[in-house]
Amino acid sequence: MSTDIDFSSLPFGYFKTDYNARAYYKDGRWSEPEYTTDEQLSIHMASTCLHYGQECFEGLKAFCGKDGVIRIFRLEENAKRLVHSARGICMAPVPVEMFITMCKQVIRLNKKYIPPFGAGASLYLRPYLLGTAAQVGVSPSTEYFFGVFCSPVGPYFKDGFKPVRMQIVRDFDRAAPYGTGTYKVGGNYAASLQALVRAKAEGYSSVFFLDAKEKKYIDEAGPANFFGIKNGQYITPRSSSILRSITNMSLRELAGDMDLAVIERPVTVEELTDFSEAGACGTAAVITPVKEIVDREVRTSYRFGDGEHAGPITTALYERLMGIQNGELDDKFNWNTILD
Ligand SMILES: Cc1ncc(COP(=O)(O)O)c(C=O)c1O
What we know:
Bound molecules: pyridoxal-5'-phosphate
Number of strands: 18
């Protein structure tokens, strides 16, 4: 099981492991999964994923506990969201059971890459679905490829659980109200890149996009949902153009369990003034506390907390989430799948 990887200094990035999983959809049926050491794909140059964006994916993590048990966080929810994304862009959905089998097997085959307890790292799984039929006209593919690979990863935001600065952008939209925002499709990330690159160059960790129609409400960050805390309330945006974050879903349950009122509704930019704490949440971001949000075009700044430490509720949520993921706290909501 031992490797010479320095798990405690891993970035959030691709790291070569031994095996990845693959399955093929043709003539209305999925093949049996295959497991391979090949990192390359061979697909037709006219594949719909390459030209018309017929591509969707997932991101989830497996953790090694102090007890040596491997726990996969909310595996089935991720499988179900891939079905939602696939249907959203007219792709053949991956059966939930097949998704689960392939993810588990990829973890088993790459066990030596699972970061040990305490390293501040985890094994990130990347399931992805591609339209692969050779087509030139715009229409849904008749053939699909589903793959799963994994990579040991460290924190997405390089400082881990330290408050970051974020930027609101008004001159870019990530997704439209009736667009593809609720699906985890590559096009949404392509649409976020210009704003993200600029924000990083201007000294911010990431951006918050606003609702594309009115430019009044907070939608979400490029890779994470938004939440704010005020007067014992956990408040998070409701919007038809954001990804339904499984981390956020979990934090809502944890917040309720901590006797906070949990509120999901449109959140205006002006309301940021009222929050005592703010954060971004997602599989990669985990919970990233936010110390400042700058509304770039309006030239307004909103600050949260003392600028150095995460607030008490954000910290409590983080500790509970991490505690459940690594097995130190009771998994009372039944979120973990134990790898057998
Ligand atoms: C756009 C976007 N929003 C939110 C999230 C968070 O979702 P989850 O908590 O399911 O990882 C992600 C992915 O991590 C994302 O890419």
